[in-house]
Design a protein that fits this description.
Strand content: 25-35%
CATH class of one domain: Alpha Beta
Shape: elongated
Helix content: 25-40%
CATH architecture of one domain: 2-Layer Sandwich
CATH topology of one domain: Double Stranded RNA Binding Domain
Distance between the termini: 31 Å
Structural class: alpha+beta
Amino acid sequence: MISTDLALLLRASGLRWDPASGDSFVVLVDGLDEEVFTISEMTIEAHRYDTGTVLGFNGTTEWALDSVAQDDALWLPREDQLRAKLGRTFRSLARSTDGSYQVLVEVAGRPEQVFTADTAEDAYARALLSLVTAAVDRVV
């Protein structure tokens, strides 16, 4: 699972989340920030309103949670979601001899870039963070 630190950096870089079944997240409140939740129509459902999306906790009385605003939740994208966000820039994922993972991306007009991390998810996240940050820098 992607690290919370990288998830925070991705969110700060402008990566947006449209909550869907199977997505994991943490609630950015002391005492809950270490607990990973997963959206499921049976227990946690995304309710969309004009004022924003609210994650409703259905039948979770043990947590004493009713709902939490999406802004208070931090998305922890899965490996497949990160790879999908890389889109056509993604070239490969490889495991090095030291056990780390390397993601290779290529953006038109630039040399290939390699991003390394202890987990595949974090390597994908580092690559995506670089691409999103570069895109924001080009716009600004």
